[in-house]
Amino acid sequence: MLRAQSEFQVQPGDQGVRVTAPLRLKVSNTIRLRVDLTAFNRAS
Question: Is residue 13 part of a domain?
Answer without folding.
Answer: yes
